What does this fold into?
Amino acid sequence: MEESEKQKERIIDQFTKQSVTFSSIPGHSGDLTLRCLTSVFTISNTDTVLDVACGPGIFTCAIALLAKEITGIDLVPAMIEKAISLQREAKIQNVNWDIGDVMPLPYADSSFSIVVTRYSFHHFINPESILNEMKRVAKNKGKVVVIDVFTASEEQSKAYDSIEKLRDLSHVHTLPLAVLQNLFKEVALVNVESKFYRVEIELEQQLNASFPKQSDVPIIRQAAIDDIGKDYLGWGVFRKDGKVYLSLPIAVIVGEKL
It folds into this structure.
């Protein structure tokens, strides 16, 4: 089996398990992300949006309140089921859902005025190809947006990956910020802007929401504790009220298709 097919299986397995727990983490709310995103450009009731690797639809439904129409696509059927449930609870009408792969995206060229993906790039074996595919389905003058965790250097990425792969078997690679930004140049997106925010997640909540091997849990926990005040891992680990928290740096990178 090709590595790309193995990775799809890992993603489906991991996020089928996480289809409920992912939504329970406060840091995964779409509000903070949306405020950061709309500080770069306006999402209006004329926009048609694609949310790539939309997961349980948290961010999709947040954007739907501003856009004309939005489509969420994800590889994991259980995530789309959760997304549909969220949409129904919120009584949102202008959302479509597709189960499918992101390479290639099952949409015609120049279909959407905004194409966005959140917290997905570190799961892709070839993120540049995915970004190019997102650009393909964006309209001319349309926005292409990647929102993801990042590191300060390749050395920090290796340290980050070494522990994160124990927590989440579908993790591939956390990109350094400079590499992530350079991908936009590589696929010829222009007028690139970057904004940043942090997501605070309590370590034990993060562990309970994912499904590492039980033998790896103490390794992950100790690695986080040992990194307090050092940030070798890029997790921004700190203590608050007797608990250990992660403060993960998130980049919102926006480019325009000519």
The chain has a mean pLDDT of 95. The domain at 3-199+248-256 is CATH 3.40.50.150 (Rossmann fold). The CA atoms of residues 131 and 187 lie 7 Å apart. The chain has one domain: 3-199+248-256.
